[in-house]
Amino acid sequence: MEKVHKSEEEWRAQLSPEEYHVLREAGTERPFTGEYTDTKTVGVYRCRACGAELFRSQTKFESHCGWPSFYAPADSDAVVLLEDRSLGTVRTEVRCARCDSHLGHVFHGEGYATPTDDRYCINSISLTLEPQE
């Protein structure tokens, strides 16, 4: 996979202020406001910043947490997981492996009836959806 490297000025020119805040400054959109929270459309979810394939609709599930939830990335190399100690807690941040944009966080062992027991809690604004034809 070819990595995408841009200056912060280039990212600011490409992304809206809201997209930049989440993708480049590790912000979070408000719960239950995202475009894809309740979407049932079959297709591929891509990184809004670089277009890399990140998740598939077949792994999306309803977690009722306020953000789109997936139990696995499209490919194990699609995302990078990093320890996040912000907000006074330890979480696992999810970033796009291609452009290093912030996507959300992953949580394990919450008891969801999924094949992995993982919940990739992803900001809608970090994604675009390519519907299956």
TrEMBL record:
Domain MsrB stretches: 8-132
Cofactor(s) for this UniProt protein: Zn(2+)
The UniProt record lists the keyword Lipoprotein: no
Keywords: Metal-binding, Oxidoreductase, Zinc
One function term, GO molecular function aspect: metal ion binding
Keyword Metal-binding: yes
Catalytic reactions of this protein: L-methionyl-[protein] + [thioredoxin]-disulfide + H2O = L-methionyl-(R)-S-oxide-[protein] + [thioredoxin]-dithiol
Any Pfam family matching the protein: SelR
GO cellular component, one term: cytoplasm
Name of the protein in its database record: peptide-methionine (R)-S-oxide reductase
Record InterPro entries: Met_Sox_Rdtase_MsrB (IPR028427), Met_Sox_Rdtase_MsrB_dom (IPR002579), Mss4-like_sf (IPR011057)
Gene Ontology BP, a term: protein repair
Biological source species: Thermomonospora echinospora
EC number assigned by the record: 1.8.4.12
PROSITE patterns linked to this entry: MSRB
Enzyme class of the recorded protein, top EC level: oxidoreductase
